[in-house]
Specification:
Structural class of chain A: alpha/beta
Bound molecules: flavin-adenine dinucleotide, FE2/S2 (inorganic) cluster
Order of helices and strands of chain B: EEHEEEHEEEHEHEEHEHEEEHEHH
Radius of gyration of chain A: 23 Å
Strand order of the largest sheet of chain A: 3-2-1-4-15
Structural class of chain B: alpha/beta
Helix content of chain B: 25-40%
Distance between the termini of chain A: 25 Å
Number of strands of chain B: 16
CATH topology of the largest domain in chain B: Rossmann fold
Strand content of chain A: 15-25%
Helix content of chain A: 25-40%
Number of helices of chain B: 9
Distance between the termini of chain B: 11 Å
Oligomer: heterodimer
Radius of gyration of chain B: 18 Å
CATH architecture of the largest domain in chain B: 3-Layer(aba) Sandwich
CATH class of the largest domain in chain B: Alpha Beta
Largest interface: A-B, 43 and 43 residues
Strand order of the largest sheet of chain B: 6-1-2-5-4-3-7
């Protein structure tokens, strides 16, 4: 995060002052929020093209005008990594898009990704001054995406400068957003970085989880290629804790290890019929489709293509699964969620997109059993109808059963998306590592260092299922403190 | 990418590969498996590691042609590369000197049984192997099994080789003549189910090595889940070996059948493709 004084200083630069004074706040507020152009819902729900089309240059510059360039930019408080929001937006307003992209990259390793997948309505945009004035927030996420895409499409992505080699080897375990951002920062500092990945693809959830209609693979690949050109080595098909151990890495001369192995274990609800054929985790479903390309006729990996598909859960993973099912030909694709729509943890935009694509929302419903036919294939789900009670510890109103009120609904495929647990491989394979009762690795919050000094950790393995931006922020923080720790040694 | 060092054809449908994989060779214990992927559109397929050679940095895989993925793998030759190979996965087999051990296998379970037989023999057990198949031509790895077993009993459904009857008949003939301390079974789920039922009657502790559907093989998806002692377990991380008397085989059979039709489709596509159009492997 940048120093407050530096942010102030930037704000007082001549061009910023004159830009600010060039248009009255009242006029800025009067501009309606630019709508993100999107592909037609009927057409897009039959293909895999990215749903959002991105803002045009004019749209972006207009949207940027809405930003008041506040003296106290509260939006930045809402950003987990403290992106210098007013500065990058003002660069867009004057049409200096490369400078906007550079500003983003000072704090965010993956702006093109975050612009697409961050829950902005809960973060930066939730703190936008416009909301206090009964207007809609500045579309910070869309602007972030615009600047990052502009840079990528211009073909002149700035490969960050890499410091002279220190000749010190460090490792990242896992190639999701946490591992990638750690790798980038350490490479910049001159470390010899290797990223070990269990799967045959680099990118973690960005590749095997989030579908391409929301985050095209090319965007992640550009970032990975960038890291490669900075000298980062990727080792696929290598499970740390199985193929090699952290002790092996140490013996091999690695001086620090950043564990970013994610929260990859699917949870089930342990209700009758959950092991019927046709019932699966969202991880299985999305892995088959996204990682294994199972929907394509050329792929050897099969996937069910149900006609009546129920997805259990209300998070991003559930939305991704249900919209994928729709694209694979589901006539009725349903979300089953035990609270109401308001409590759904998914990004607002995804809920909005899902609805436009004809997804049925069965809220205040909780599955209690599944029934199958004589072949053991799921045919029905039994739902308990719920109502909302008092707010619980998470601040959300807790759902409770309405006694005796159940429903039976026909299904031929059920995708369970009720959360994930931390990947236990590393915690199990390293003795002396402090692990919480939830299975997450315990680290010092500011340094990301674990109970074993050479091991740092971040992302979902520390937080449980969280977000891309938090994972990325952890990677960067870990890089900073591992560098300090190694420099002191 | 892992290089195939050598290929040995055991029979029409069974091939042994020696594959370069130094790290896996070093970490390998009996019972471990790997996930293999052939070609960029290939499926992730679990295969038991038959043996390893730390010095040479290689592992051996015995592959039986059953579906499209194993057929693609079997079509590779020495010098070719396997697109992806990851492991070792799963828990290692618990090997000790039990005394007399019965190893009952058939069909797809024969290749994964070989390393278990070898390890049990090495630990000092008296190993009796029951090898079953529908008919003589489907009996595989007989020679290798004989090398590491004190006795091999061959059973065929049609009586074309060995004794006519099912694997369970073979087991029962042993149980009636001598006392057995431990039993291991690998094969089609239905076979393991009946082996389990039989050995339960004789109160012989029995382990079954399960071959469920898998995707990642690292505990990430739950495709491999089975019910053991009324609890859901993931075969790839909690197994692959479980107490045969506690496994819900009926559920497992049902789940295995779930993808059969889809798999058949892929096999057909592969078979219909002219040789030169098959994915570069
Ligand atoms: C379908 C889906 C949709 C989502 N949508 C959003 C969204 O819209 N916005 C948002 O902010 N967040 C979203 N999330 C959450 C977000 O993706 C995660 O919080 C984030 O990816 C966590 O990053 P990570 O780097 O910690 O782990 P991951 O991305 O999970 O990466 C971990 C990697 O480590 C590998 N690995 C694990 N163990 C080992 C080992 N022992 N050795 C080697 N490699 C190992 C794994 O194979 C994996 O590739 C979504 C998650 C899912 C599943
Ligand atoms: S194969 Fe995916 S969890 Fe076992």
């Amino acid at each position: 995060m940048k120093e407050e004084s530096q942010i102030k200083q930037e704000r007082e630069q001549d061009w910023r002052v004159s830009l600010r004074n060039g248009m009255k706040a009242k006029d800025r507020i009067a501009i309606p929020r630019v709508q993100m152009p999107e592909r037609d819902a009927r057409i897009r729900s039959t293909n895999n093209e990215e749903v959002n089309l991105g803002l045009t240059e004019t749209q972006a510059m207009t949207e940027a005008q809405r930003c008041l360039d506040c003296a106290k930019p509260t939006c930045m408080d809402g950003c987990p990594v403290g992106v210098n929001i007013p500065t990058f937006i003002k660069y867009i307003e004057v049409g200096n898009f490369p400078a906007a992209a550079r500003t983003l990259k000072q704090t965010s390793a993956l702006p093109a990704v975050c612009g697409r997948v961050c829950p902005q309505e809960k973060q930066c945009e939730a703190h936008c001054i416009h909301l206090k004035m009964k207007s809609t927030a500045v579309s910070i996420g869309n602007l972030e995406r615009f600047a990052a895409d502009y840079e990528r499409n211009s073909g002149c992505i700035s490969v960050p400068e890499v410091a002279a080699s220190k000749g010190i080897k460090v490792a990242a375990v896992g190639s999701g957003p946490a591992g990638l951002s750690f790798a980038g920062d350490m490479a910049k500092l001159g470390y010899d970085v290797s990223v070990f990945e269990a799967l045959h693809e680099i990118g973690g959830v960005l590749k095997y989880g989030i579908p391409v209609f929301r985050l095209p693979n090319e965007i992640v690949d550009v970032e990975i290629d960038n890291l490669r050109s900075m000298g980062v080595k990727f080792v696929k098909n290598c499970i740390v804790g199985k193929t090699i151990t952290i002790d092996d890495l140490k013996a091999d001369g690695f001086k620090g290890v950043f564990v970013a192995s994610g929260a990859g274990l699917p949870r089930f609800m342990n209700i009758p019929g959950e092991n019927l054929a046709g019932v699966m985790s969202s991880n299985e479903y999305l892995t088959r489709v996204n990682l294994m390309n199972a929907a394509s006729a050329t792929s050897d990996t099969p996937v069910y293509t149900g006609k009546k598909v129920a997805v259990i859960g209300g998070g991003n993973t559930a939305m991704d699964s249900v919209r994928t099912a729709r694209r694979l030909g589901a006539e009725r694709a349903m979300i089953v969620y035990r609270r109401s729509e308001e409590e759904m943890p998914a990004r607002r935009e995804e809920i909005h997109h899902a609805k436009a694509e004809g997804i049925d929302f069965l809220t205040l419903r909780n599955p209690i059993a599944y029934q199958g036919d004589e072949k053991g294939r799921v045919t029905h789900m039994q739902l308990q109808v719920m109502e909302l009670g008092e707010a619980d510890a998470s601040g959300r109103r807790a759902p409770r059963e309405i006694p005796g009120k159940t429903e039976c609904i026909e299904v031929d495929e059920v995708i369970v998306s009720v959360g994930v647990s931390p990947n236990p491989l590393i915690p199990q394979s390293v003795s002396g590592l402090d692990v919480s009762k939830w299975g997450t690795i315990v680290v010092d919050e500011s340094s990301m260092q674990s109970s074993i000094p050479m091991i740092f950790a971040g992302g979902d393995i520390v937080r449980g299922g969280a977000t891309v931006i938090l994972a990325m922020g952890d990677g960067r923080r870990a890089a900073k403190s591992m560098n300090e720790w190694l420099s002191k040694k | 990418m892992n290089k195939i060092i050598s290929k040995e054809i055991f029979s029409e449908n069974v091939v042994q590969f020696e594959v370069e994989a130094p790290l896996i060779a070093k970490a390998h214990r009996a019972g471990h498996f790997v996930i293999v992927r052939v070609g960029e559109q290939g499926e992730r397929m679990p295969l038991t590691i038959a043996s390893s050679d730390v010095q040479k940095g290689s592992i051996n895989l015995v592959v039986q042609k059953v579906g499209v993925s194993s057929a693609k793998l079997c079509a590779l030759n020495a010098g070719d590369y396997i697109t992806d190979l990851v492991g070792p996965l799963g828990k290692a087999t618990h090997i000790e000197n039990f005394g007399t051990v019965l190893c009952a296998c058939g069909g797809v379970g024969t290749a994964p049984m070989l390393p278990i037989v070898r390890a049990l023999k090495k630990a000092g057990n008296r190993v009796i192997t029951v090898l079953a198949a529908r008919s003589k031509t489907l009996i595989i790895l007989e020679k290798q099994m004989r090398e590491h077993s004190d006795e091999v009993i061959i059973m065929t459904d049609d009586g074309s080789y060995g004794t006519k009857g099912l694997v369970t008949n073979g087991i029962e003939s042993v149980l009636q003549r001598e006392s057995v301390d431990f039993c291991v079974t690998v094969g089609p789920a239905i076979m393991m189910k009946f082996v389990g039922q039989l050995t339960q009657k004789y109160r012989i502790p029995t382990v079954a090595s399960l071959n469920t559907i898998m995707v990642d093989g690292t505990g990430m998806c739950g495709a491999c889940r089975v019910t053991v002692d009324k609890k859901t377990k993931f075969v790839c991380v909690d197994g692959p070996e479980f107490d045969a008397h506690q496994v819900d085989f009926d559920e497992m059979i049902m789940r295995l059948n779930a993808y059969k039709d889809l798999e058949r489709g892929a096999m057909q596509r592969f078979a219909e493709q002219p040789e030169q159009d098959r994915p570069a492997m």
